[in-house]
Amino acid sequence: MKKLYAGCLSLGIGALLLGTATNGLAQHIFTDDTLTPYKQNFDGLPATVAFRNNLTLPGVYALAEADAGVMPAGYPTTYTPTTIAANDGSNVAADYFHFGTEGSTDRAFGGIASTQIVSATGYVGIRFRNSSSVTIRNLEIQYAMEQWYNSGRQDQAQVGVSYLKAAVGDTIAALNRDAGTWTPIPALTVEAPSTATVVSSRDGNAPSNRRVRQVTLDDIALLPGQEIMIRWEYVLNSSTNGNGLSIDDVVITPIANSFFLAATQTGSLSSWKSNADGTGTSPASFTADNQTFYLVGNNVDASALAVSGANSKVVVGTLSKPTSLTIANNTLIQTPIDVTAGSTLLIREAAATAPATFRLGALAPNSTVAYVGNQAEQTVLPANYGHLRLAGQAPKTLGGNIIIDGSLTLDGAQLRLHQYNATLNRGARLRQTHPTNYVVTDGSGQLRQTVSSDDQPVLFPVGTAQVYLPVTLRQSKPRSEDVFQVRVADQAYAHYDAQEYGVGAALTHRVVQKTWFVSEEVAGNSDVSMTLQWPTAATTADFDPARAFVAHYHNGNWDQTAASLGAAGTGPFSATRTGITSFSPFGVTAQAIALPTTAATSQPLVTVVPNPSSGRFELVTTSATHTALQGVVLDALGREVLRITQPTGSQRTTFDLSRQPAGLYLFRLSGETPQTLRIVKQ
C-alpha cells in the first residue's frame, strides 16, 4: 500500500497505480447443487505470487483507496496489488501480504496498514451470487483476524466488515466506497489484540494474536440472480495504525432451509416452523442436508432432538430471543451447536457411557457454555468460548485446547488441563477461584493469560491434583505486555531436560517440593514481579519459611541469588521475586542464613573471607581449635557441594568453589553450637 502514495505527489509515479481493475469480475456462485458453506483459508500460496482479482484466489479481491479529497486532481486514488509476497511479520513495508510462519503452508491474507503521505483504507472482498432456485434467507459469516506485526499504534488498529447487495441481475463492480451503499456489520469488527506489547512481529496463529468472529445476517433475503459482496477493511495510516493485520479461515454459509422451535416438543417435526413467528412449513425430516434449527424459548430440553445431515446445525437462541438449552453429553444431536449472543448452553453428564456426538460450533463472545455434571467426569470440548462456567462435583477435563474471550468461572469445580492449554484472551476474567476451585495442571497443559504493563496483579490459580499453588505476576515496564503461560508440577529437581522433566532424584532438603514452570510468549522486554504460594504440606520437614526465597533454574543450574528472604503469611505461605526478565522453571528454597552467634561456647566462632569471592575462600576461626571442625558447603537448594575439615590447632583452612556456578552458598559448621554462614560466589 506504500506504492499508492510513496512519492506520488512530488515525483508523479502514477504508473504504479493500476486503478480498480474490478469491473466485470466473476464471483463465487451458489447453485442448487452447491448451496453449501464457502471456505477460504488462503493456504498454499507460494513465497511471492502474481496477483489478479478473482484469478489468483477465485472470488477474492483486493483494493486500497485514498480517503476522499486527499489526492490532487488527476492522480489515481486506488491501488490494486500486482504481486503478493509472503511475510512472517518481519517485513514492515506497507503493502498487501500473505502472512504465516516461514515455510508453513498456513497463510492469512492482509497487509501492513500504513502509508507515507496520505490516509487511506485497504479492502479485501469476497463476492457471491445466488444462482440457485431458492432465496437465501440468512447468510452466516465467520472469520479469524490475525495480527502479524505490532506497530505500537492502536487508535484505528482494527478490522471492520460490511456488505453490499446489488439489485437482481446487476453485478457489483468494485470494492471502493462509491460502488454503492455499504452496510456495516458491527458484530464482526475486531480490534488488534496485541498493540500494547513490544513493537515487533507477532505469531498471528497464536491464540493471543488471533480473534474469531461469527454472525448471521438474518433476513438478508438474497434472491435468485442477486449478488452480495462481503468486504473487510482497515485504515492505512502510520500514525494511527501501521499494524500487520490479516483475515483467515473465512466461512460464508448460505441458509435457505431454516426452522424455528414453535412448541415444546423438540423431537417432533410439527414443533418446527420456517418462520420465526411460529408460522410457515415444517421440515420433512431432521436428517436432510443444509438445515438450520433455531432453538428459542426458556429452559429448552433437546434430549429428544436428533438432528443430522451434512452442513446442518442447531443454533441456541437468536439475537432477538436469547435462549437457555440443557443437553446431556451423549445427546442425539450429531451436528455442530452454535450459541448466540446472550444465550446459554448447559451440558450435564451423560446418561450413558456413549461419547458426545455433537460438537460446539460458533460461540458468540457474550454467550455462555456451562458444564454442570455432578457425577460422571465431563470432557470440556475444544472451542473458542465466550463465557465458560464449570459447576458441580464431577471432574472437568479438557479434551483439547480452549480459548476464552469473556470469563472462566470455577463454580465449585476444578478444571484439569492434561496435555491441553486454556488461554484467556486479553480482557477475559477468572471468577470464583478458591483453594478448592482452581486449574489443575496435571500434564503439559498450561494456563495462559495476558499480563499488562499497568502494574496490576494477574492471578494464575493453578495447582496439582492435591495442592493449590497459585502464581501472581505483575509488571509496569512500558510496552512489556505479553502472554504468560503457567503450570506447576510435583517435586523439585537439581536438573531438568529440554522437555522440562526432572532429572535424577527429587530434592528433599529445605525446599518446597514443587516446580513452577513460567514462560512468556514473546521473549524479551518483560520485567516481572512473581509471587509463588504454597501450603506447609508441600514442603520438606526441615523447611523454614522465614528463610525462603524464589530460585530460578536457567543455563542448566538453579541460580543462587536470594533477592528477598522470608515468606509472608502463617500458612499458606508466599514469596516474591522481582526483576525477572527471563523465564523457565522456578522453585522455592529455604536455606539457613543466620549470622554467627555470640552465645557462650567453648567452640570458636568462624568467618569466611573474602566474601564475596570469585572462587577461593578461607575458613577463619577466632582461636586455635582444640578439636577438628567439620563443615559442609551447600548450594541454594540444599545440595552438598563440598565437605571441609579444619584440623586441630589450625585457625585457617582454604577451600575452592571455582568450579561451582555463581550465586549464594551456605557454609554449615557442625558442633555443640552449629553455625551457618552465607557465602557469595561471584
From TrEMBL:
The keyword Signal applies. It holds the Pfam family Por_Secre_tail. The keyword Hydrolase does not apply. Keywords: Signal. Residues 609-676 form the Secretion system C-terminal sorting domain. Residues 1-26 form the signal peptide. NCBIfam families: Por_Secre_tail (TIGR04183). This is T9SS type A sorting domain-containing protein.
